[in-house]
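User: Could you go from structure to sequence for me? I need the amino acid at each position, not a summary. Structure tokens:
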């Protein structure tokens, strides 16, 4: 396993745990879809900082360029996440936490590919 892949998994895990924690705390105060969005917003900062400093520290792009590109990448990942989450939650009637976990896993691969080859291009 390359160091980039290792750190991507560690940072992604930390961001996913942040997302899950925020979701768990917020889901009883708002619609689950909004709790998912709030979790994403907070986890975004954990993810960007970790990926910039650890996963893709040898990036050839500026911090500003990486932030903008990663923002687009993260929003694309969140769009996938939210679509999967809504289908599992509303159409298939899965429990909210289980639906979110599967949605996070689904979006992770997409985020890695876009991060590695575009947002933090080497």
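Assistant: Here is the amino acid at each position, in order:
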């Amino acid at each position: 396993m390359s160091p980039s892949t290792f750190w991507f998994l560690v940072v992604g895990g930390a961001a996913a745990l942040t997302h899950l924690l925020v979701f768990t705390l917020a889901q009883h105060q708002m619609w689950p879809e909004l709790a998912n969005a709030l979790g994403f917003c907070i986890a975004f900062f954990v993810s960007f900082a970790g990926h910039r400093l650890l996963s893709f520290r040898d990036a050839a792009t500026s911090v500003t360029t990486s932030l903008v590109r990663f923002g687009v990448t993260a929003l694309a990942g969140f769009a996938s996440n939210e679509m999967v989450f809504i289908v599992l939650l509303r159409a298939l009637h899965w429990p909210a936490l289980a639906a979110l976990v599967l949605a996070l896993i689904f979006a992770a691969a997409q985020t890695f590919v876009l991060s590695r080859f575009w947002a933090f291009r080497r």
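One structural detail worth keeping in mind: The chain is about 85% helix and 0% strand.
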